[in-house]
Design a protein that fits this description.
single chain, 625 residues, alpha/beta, six-stranded mixed β-sheet, disordered N terminus
């Protein structure tokens, strides 16, 4: 390979400056040759633009959390004056260079200052008019989504919620309560678990089948992120001949600075390839060779690539890294089957059609995936062992039904080319802020909490775990297939022998989420919401999920409510640990008396607070009160 420039001269600032200059030149060449008339207005402005800092208003820049769940946690800072966030900015701690790049937040993240003060924010508890606690005829579930709403007080809200929760837990059990929010919220762990537990879902919707099999196939598991640390870091990308992105769009949806790193690799000479149904923003920005495939057909596509690699290696050689396969894998061919294997079948024989009389040729794959045989053959040659290839696969292809074998064929093709475990070569999933900058952590989290302040999460006594694709079906039919907790912290599969279970969901709780929109099959979800006795939603705005609920409660953002903690320590990428402060701004005046954090309820108070009990309303520890 020819010597290439791995550091380059292009910076993000020079790129933006050049683009701006080009746009100005284009405008000058195309616009009419005339100037706007001078207004002559010299009156001083009595206002400040949003991007300007009022030097007369004494304030302080404070690091805050990005509460959006895109997967990234970019650095955000707000300028707080008298409890009000007047400005927002991102990372400006270091000069923006390849060595110390800035972890900049996206436009959506920066817009949270406006979202906090938006008129769309929920300001007080609301109740669906034709719902009453008690189940049966009191529910009128068919009116969910169509009913009118009425404002209620916080005392009424606590009364109604506690009364219905006590009835459902007492009459049925924790199995009848379905918690539909992502992650470990304190509503989930601090309230529902002590009351008797809750049924929940396994979030393989995000990680797809990578979540179930990556660890068993020898892939890495970083925290709870399957496949992470399997790809090399941003500096190693500069040495790649080819960077192949399959089924991802980091320019659109990955936090941090992936496109900055990709652009530096492109400047250094890497050729980009994009595999996916659409030529998206990432592909067009990087001028990638686009290989279109139909959604959900990546397994067939890669089987065709594997077949062509075998054919090319037999005819020409130097395509497959047989030494790597022999040293580092088992089960590829007849000679590498493990001792005591229950079958003689192996992946090579399957690819060649030895067991089903169907060779997985590029022509066979093309009929299924839509990619041309020529593109499949080109990629097979590109994946040859003599090319330095970094293959980055998004999680999207493995989120499809029928994608159970996709992680295995991806690992197989990567190993066939020897693109693992060495400089300039890598093959693994990529996701959110790890895109373009993978690898083991350099900056690691220590003890995030002062002595005695670490939160304790009660264990959930209910073991019902429903695969997310089938959650609504389980509610509507009263039965589902249980597979266990699916995966352990080390990434190894914990899938249990399938067990047919009956389940009677009576209550759905959504906490800071919008499951009717983000979970698959919205129509089936609406049927599920209309079937149960009670739906409780806590959120910032009135979402479609809130529309199909019975009680809707406003919550405070992390900027407003410290939740008993003063700060949070988070990780944005392998090189950065961020300190984020909670409760740095005040709720608006109307919300100050009403907004309560969804994370500050306690089980004892809610259990005791019923219409028939004279117990006073439980105190709330959030700053909004």
């Amino acid at each position: 390979m020819e010597e290439r420039n791995t550091l380059g001269t292009l910076t993000r600032r020079s790129f933006v400056a050049a683009a701006s200059a080009g746009a100005a030149a284009l405008a000058a060449g195309c616009a009419p040759q005339q100037k706007m008339a001078e207004t002559g207005d010299t009156t001083p402005r009595e206002y400040h633009l949003d991007a300007e800092l009022d030097e007369n208003a004494a304030g302080e820049w404070k690091p805050v959390q990005c509460w959006l769940s895109c997967g990234g946690k970019c650095l955000l800072q707000v300028y707080v004056v008298d409890g009000v966030a007047t400005r927002v900015k991102s990372d400006d701690i270091y000069e923006d260079t390849i060595e110390t790049f800035q972890n900049r937040g996206c436009v959506r993240g920066r817009a949270q200052r406006a979202a906090h003060s938006s008129a769309e924010r929920l300001k007080y508890p609301m109740k669906r008019k034709n719902w009453q606690p008690g189940g049966g005829e009191n529910v009128n579930g068919e009116l969910r989504g169509e009913d009118t709403w009425e404002r209620i007080s916080w005392d009424e809200a606590y009364d109604l919620v506690a009364q219905e929760m006590k009835r459902i837990y007492g009459t049925y059990s924790g199995r009848s309560v379905l918690h539909m929010s992502f992650g470990r919220t304190c509503m989930r762990s601090g309230l529902l678990a002590p009351l008797g537990g809750y049924s929940t879902f396994e979030f393989c919707d995000s990680y797809g089948t990578n979540f179930m099999y990556t660890g068993n196939l020898g892939g890495y598991f970083h925290g709870f992120e399957p496949g992470h640390t399997g790809n090399n870091d941003r500096l190693d990308l500069l040495n790649a001949d080819y960077i192949v992105i399959e089924g991802g769009n980091p320019a659109w949806c990955s936090g941090g600075s992936p496109m900055f790193h990709f652009w530096r690799a492109k400047e250094a000479g890497a050729q980009f390839v994009y595999i996916g149904p659409e030529c998206n923003l990432t592909a067009t920005t990087l001028e990638a060779k686009w290989i279109p495939v139909r959604p959900g057909t990546d397994t067939a596509f890669l089987l065709g690539v594997a077949y062509e690699m075998l054919r090319l290696d037999e005819e020409e050689g130097n395509i497959i890294d047989w030494d790597f396969l022999a040293r580092c894998t088992i089960g590829f061919d007849d000679d590498s089957m493990p001792a005591g294997a229950s079958t003689d079948e192996n992946i090579k024989g399957y690819i060649l059609g030895a067991y089903d009389n169907t060779p997985k040729t590029p022509e066979w794959a093309s009929e299924i995936c839509g990619a041309s045989p020529e593109d499949i053959a080109w990629l097979a040659r590109t994946f040859g062992k003599d090319n330095a290839v970094s293959w980055l696969m998004g999680y999207a292809p493995s989120r499809c039904n029928g994608a159970e074998n996709l992680p295995q064929i991806m690992e197989t093709v990567g190993c066939m080319g020897g693109h693992k475990g060495k400089p300039d070569h890598s093959c693994a999933p990529q996701y959110h802020f790890f895109a373009a900058n993978d690898g083991p952590d350099i900056a690691a989290l220590g003890d995030c909490y002062p002595a005695g302040k670490a939160p304790e999460f009660p264990a959930n006594p209910v073991d019902d775990m429903i695969l997310h694709n089938f959650v609504w079906q389980a509610v509507n039919t009263g039965k589902y297939q249980w597979y266990g907790t699916v995966v352990g912290d080390d990434g190894r599969s914990l899938v249990q022998p399938v067990e047919e279970r009956e389940i009677d969901i009576r209550m759905i709780v959504t906490d800071f989420g919008n499951p009717l929109v983000v979970r698959c099959n919205t129509n089936e979800g609406i049927k599920a919401f209309r079937k149960v006795d009670f739906v409780l939603t806590l959120g910032l705005v009135f979402t479609p999920t809130a529309q199909y609920s019975d009680i809707v409660l406003p919550i405070a953002t992390s900027w407003e409510d410290a939740n008993g903690d003063d700060y949070h320590v988070g990780q944005q990428n392998r090189e950065t640990v961020m300190w984020q402060q909670f409760g740095v701004i005040s709720p608006t005046s109307k919300r100050k008396a009403t907004a309560r954090s969804s994370w500050s309820w306690d089980a004892v108070s809610v259990w005791m607070w019923t219409r028939s009990s004279p117990t006073p309303a439980p105190s709330c520890t959030c700053s909004a009160c």
